[in-house]
Specification:
Keywords: Cell membrane, Membrane, Sugar transport, Transmembrane, Transmembrane helix, Transport. Pfam families: BPD_transp_1 (PF00528). InterPro entries: MetI-like (IPR000515), MetI-like_sf (IPR035906). The protein is an all-alpha fold and about 290 residues long. The chain folds into two domains: about 50 residues; about 230 residues, Orthogonal Bundle (MetI-like fold), CATH 1.10.3720.10. Helix content is about 75%, strand content about 0%. The chain has twelve helices and two strands; from the N terminus they run αββααααααααααα. It has a two-stranded antiparallel sheet. Helix 1 packs antiparallel against helix 12 and helix 11 runs antiparallel to helix 12.
């Protein structure tokens, strides 16, 4: 009986583990095969080249630039979304007239296709007839049209801002879940002790929603790191590859240049980065939990 109790959890988990392993391990194995061989644009595997495809990536300045830009993109969008979502979630958690409607309005961007959102913003940021230029000219903020998407100095920051905008609804949903789990008694007791709103937020709200912030951090990092539509639909990595991130660089290498071996190598690099991030996060979370 005791041995059955020990084995039972592993037996129950085994089917899911096998399925997850097949979903992950098989594609990674196929990518490794492509990345270590010479592959023509039709996907036919030829000679074994070892690490030559990875060496070619390191020799490509566009890959290095895309790698750094991916880090900026991910940190900017994820960090900005969390910073903006916390106050929004705090407001939506309050009891006020029209709260349900306000929640629906905040969630609406999440229901719209990312590609459609990016196309609409591409029109809005048009240097000649865009709504943003028209509004700024009308308000007297600028005296001539700005080519928002024609220069990297303005195009990439705008893409980060749009990335933050479309990430906020999902993040707010997660944080609202955490806020709704906090008992009101804690705030009432803190108020009786003379704690103000800031002290309540710092000592009650923030520690109790920390696990939910961690979930938002991990899921958004994985999602944003691999995000393709915003960059591609707005600039296709231009001008002159100056807004490329790894996923758009991969697309160009694989489908425009036909270098499937190098594209597979980029995929493995991306997989490795996310795997290392996840392992470090799990390690830090486990260590913190052990101390508590």
């Amino acid at each position: 009986m005791a041995s059955t109790r020990v084995i039972a959890p592993y037996v129950l988990v085994l089917p899911s583990f096998v399925l997850a392993a097949l979903i992950v391990i098989w594609p990674v194995n196929e990518l490794a095969q492509l990345a270590s061989h010479s592959v023509n644009r039709f996907g036919q595997i030829r000679d074994f080249v070892g690490m030559a495809n990875f060496a070619a990536l390191l020799d490509d300045p566009n890959f290095i630039a895309s790698l750094w830009r991916t880090g900026i993109w991910t940190i900017g969008v994820v960090g900005g979304a969390i910073i903006c979502s916390v106050p929004v979630a705090l407001v939506l958690n309050e009891d006020f007239y029209g709260r349900d409607l306000a929640r629906v309005i905040v969630m609406l961007p999440w229901a719209v296709s990312l590609t459609m959102t990016a196309i609409v913003w591409r029109w809005a940021l048009s240097g000649e007839s865009g709504m943003l230029n028209s509004a700024l000219l009308e308000l007297g903020v600028i005296d001539q049209n700005i080519q928002w998407l024609a220069e990297a100095s303005t195009a990439f920051p705008m893409q980060i801002l749009i990335g933050i905008l479309v990430t906020i609804p999902f993040t707010v949903t997660i944080i609202l879940g955490g806020l709704s789990s906090i008992p009101d008694d804690l705030y009432e007791a803190a108020a009786l002790e003379g704690a103000g709103r800031w002290e309540q937020f710092r000592h009650i709200t923030l520690p109790l929603i920390a696990p939910f912030l961690n979930i938002a951090l991990v899921l958004n990092t994985i999602y944003v790191f691999n995000s393709f539509p915003i960059i591609w639909a707005m600039t296709q990595g231009g001008p002159a590859n100056s807004t490329d991130i790894l996923v758009t660089y991969l697309y160009k290498v694989g489908f425009r240049l036909g270098k499937l071996g190098e594209a597979s190598a980029v995929s493995l690099v991306m997989f490795g980065i996310l795997l290392v991030f996840t392992l470090i996060y799990v390690r830090l979370t486990t260590a913190k939990g052990a101390k508590i």
